DNA sequence: GCGACAG
DNA sequence: ATCTTGTCGC
């Protein structure tokens, strides 16, 4: 698939903040999703050689049957450190390399990390979604920012995630008795719809099938 | 100034 | 993210 780069990736944090604050205005948090949704993709990152090499993996599954259709892997030198709030600048370049190798254009991408549940409302799911112009959902395994009530133990239970008086996402239990996931809009997906897709992509385990497959490709030998 | 802090 | 075996619990 083709990609529409919006800026370079060699930046200072001050420049990164300026980009986040500029691009966040283009984020759409209502549903602008192709119908029917036939393919969902998961993207994840791994590192090699003491972190000097980034390895991105993409897995495209059919929806709602969740059968693996296509995968791609891309490696490139790691060029940005991990700094909370700036994850996309570290991971998106390699993810774009991997997406360029994919033949099936996914209808929705589930990202490992936050969407608008971010200090400047521009997490990795927003950044990736805007660049590739595909609906994205932020699916994070831990909290970056925000507060929420305790989530009931049963699968499907959720609580709103709020920050400074605004709703920024939801904390969702995808499996009874496991830690909840932090869900937020990336681009072109509403929160309600995001929760719906995440539940449909987690028939058995805590993490979506998409991310589980991408994770194995990105992290296993 | 003191904590918090996606992967 | 990554380094890593056995172990607790459904």
Automatic annotation (TrEMBL):
Where is the protein localized?
Cytoplasm
Q: Does the keyword Thylakoid apply?
A: no
Give the superkingdom in one word.
Answer: Bacteria
Give the cofactors, semicolon-separated.
Mg(2+)
- GO biological-process terms attached to the record: DNA repair
Q: Where is this site: Interaction with target DNA?
A: 82
Q: Which reaction does it catalyse?
A: Endonucleolytic cleavage at apurinic or apyrimidinic sites to products with a 5'-phosphate
Which Enzyme Commission number(s) are on file for it?
3.1.21.7
According to the UniProt record, what class of enzyme is this? hydrolase
The answer on whether this UniProt entry bears the keyword Membrane reads no
Q: Which residues bind Mg(2+)?
A: 44, 112
What Pfam families does its record include?
Endonuclease_5 (PF04493)
Q: Which CDD domains does the protein's record reference? A: Endonuclease_V
- Keywords, alphabetical: Cytoplasm, DNA damage, DNA repair, Endonuclease, Hydrolase, Magnesium, Metal-binding, Nuclease
The terms describing its cellular component in GO are:
cytoplasm
List the HAMAP family hit by this protein, alphabetically.
Answer: Endonuclease_5 (MF_00801)
The family assignment reads: Belongs to the endonuclease V family.
Q: What does this protein do?
A: DNA repair enzyme involved in the repair of deaminated bases. Selectively cleaves double-stranded DNA at the second phosphodiester bond 3' to a deoxyinosine leaving behind the intact lesion on the nicked DNA.
Q: Which PANTHER family match?
A: ENDONUCLEASE V
Q: Could you identify this protein by its name?
A: Endonuclease V
